[in-house]
Amino acid sequence: MCNCDEGFELASDGTNCIDLDECSFSEFLCQYRCVNTPGSFSCICPPGYYLYEDSRSCEDINECDTGNNTCTTEQVCFNFQGGYTCLNPLQCQLPYTAVSDNQCMCSAENPACRDLAFTVLYRHMDLSSGRSVPADIFQMQATTRYPGAFYIFQIKSGNSGREFYMRQTSNVSATLVLTRPIKGPKEVVLDLEMVTVNNVINFRGSSIIRLTIFVSEHPF
């Protein structure tokens, strides 16, 4: 009787050994891709990931921490799953002026600012492709509270596909909810608006968070 080493099986002639294709047994052997080898198999990961110590899972490479990126000294490196991007220094469009490295302000004393949001705050986040829904992904709240005022939270722009909605969680806060899975790679820019209304002094104003979401190519 002929026996074969592990990873091989006896051919129909009963004397020769042929390789077993372990990758054909299950699509769950590897998180990304299985490669058959003589007598065994190995897992590989897409660019931007490394093979985890379990030899099957893929972990993101943080190019911003490793220094393996092309960002200049003026730019800020932002890592996301499977990649990174270089964020340019903030440039506020008139009549806005920069008040910090991620916030623009439009002075109430400027007549050109009358119908514009008082502030625009720039934020960034990453999101895995095809993330299960519904999912709470971002929190927004009033940092300054005025007596007699109430707040309205809404998505002002960027939600043409109806993948998101704002759920008000208190009178001063709301949560951005992902309602439909988004396939990447994709970059989504949302303007999240908080409207402040005070009927006592007949005041109405708004502030915006311009949230850029980097959706990864892969679901891990």
Helices and strands in order, then pairings?
Elements: E1 8-10, E2 17-19, E3 33-37, E4 40-44, E5 49-51, E6 58-60, H1 63-66, E7 76-80, E8 83-87, E9 97-100, E10 103-105, E11 119-127, E12 135-141, E13 150-157, E14 164-170, E15 173-178, E16 186-198, E17 203-215
Parallel strand pairs: 11-17
Antiparallel strand pairs: 1-2, 3-4, 5-6, 7-8, 9-10, 10-11, 12-15, 13-16, 14-15, 16-17
Please describe what this structure looks like.
The protein is mostly beta strands and 220 residues long. 2% of the residues lie in helices and 46% in strands. The chain contains 1 helix and 17 strands. The chain has one helix at residues 63-66; strands spanning 8-10, 17-19, 33-37, 40-44, 49-51, 58-60, 76-80, 83-87, 97-100, 103-105, 119-127, 135-141, 150-157, 164-170, 173-178, 186-198, 203-215. A 6-stranded mixed β-sheet has the order 9-10-11-17-16-13, with no helix packed on it. The longest helix is centred in the N-terminal third of the chain and has 4 residues, at 63-66. The chain is elongated. The two termini are 46 Å apart.
